[in-house]
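Data availability (excerpt). The following record was deposited with the supplementary files.
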Amino acid sequence: MLMMWMVIGVVPARGEDRLPAVYVTTTNLNVREYASKKSHKLETLPQGTRVKVQRIKSDGWAVIDYNGGTAYCYAKYLRYHEPIGAAPIAKLKSDSSGNSLLSVALYLGIACIVLAILRKVLVTILGLVSILFYKLYRLISFPFFCLNWLQRRLARPWMQNYKRNTRSDNKNAELREQLEYWAIPLYILLTPLRFVNAFYYNMVVHCSFEMFNYLVEVIVPEGRREGADNFFLWLVLIPWRIIKYVVWHGLLTLIESSIWTAVDTFVPALTVYHGTTCSAAEGICQGPGRVEARNWLSAVWNVGGGNYAGNGIYFAPVKSTALHYSAGSMIVCRVSFGKTLDLGIAPRWVYDQCGKPNALGVTKWGLDNGYVTGEWWRGDTGWWEYCMYDWQNRYNASWRIRPLYVLNIKGKCMQRIPGGMYHWLFNSMVINDILA
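Predicted structure:
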């Protein structure tokens, strides 16, 4: 008797020994996919619904027939009704299709809301990261700024002695010849330092900035065809933008930076600064046609005004000098200056043209004598400048100038380059320049 009462206490009705049998729900009862309250709910049976119970488990869950298979509901809400075959059992009507469609629509709606909120949050985070980078820029880059400065000074340790041209042309010619020989052992000794600088600026700095650009393009696309002003298009094209920017262009950036690291190790390059406007910085650095059609000036360096040390593209070895010329932005570049003319030991008539607008004679003499760049001490301001000689835009889109990243001086943040920077290594003009 005691055992009988224990069994009766476990199940909701008598007749367990006659299972399978027909039971009736005593309340609105949830049908689950598995024997767990956390399992997916297939439907809710109204009170009084008859179900065929195959067996009742020791944990209180009843195994019932459900649409050609089995499902589970809690046994204590079932009452024994009759044995199998006494009366027809109404086929349980599954609302899973309707529920599924409703659930899918609900989940999609929630997902869209969550993604819209997440988009706003990520935009805010990326904006803060951009500002934080600008604020911490000098601190983060200081050790490598010192190494870059050291490479520049050790490669030409005599530069401080020849700021001003006070010697005869014959003496200057002798000095130029002698210093070319002295530069050879210095080049060999500085190879490890060049590799460290090349790896940091190409692999770490440039790749990090470009990945930031690509992530921004995924979250806040610039092109209308990629969802700039259409949320549905933005949502649908997320996988495409990830593949296009993060995967494809990210891979190209990694390959390109690896090659430039090797090149910079053997072909000396320095990290220098170029002050310009925000629109010019975007035009110079942006890959043409990657986001939307841009003008023909995309990925092109153009000679500006002034040209006090020759006709060409000007770079500063320190940030403060580039700030003087900046009108909103500053491009940080790796530049392979090539054979460099110390204007302090150039022919006197060449040096005398410096400091005057459009010193075209300096450019002509430099190019005629195999020089790529001129290095000039601007005495009136007290700083060094580099002029990469550019006769009729000869160095436009050249391999010698590769932007690393852009600082927005007015906004005090990193400047976004829509679609990411141009892949300078994969430019036909660059390839032709190298092969030539």
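Summary of structural features: The radius of gyration is 37 Å.
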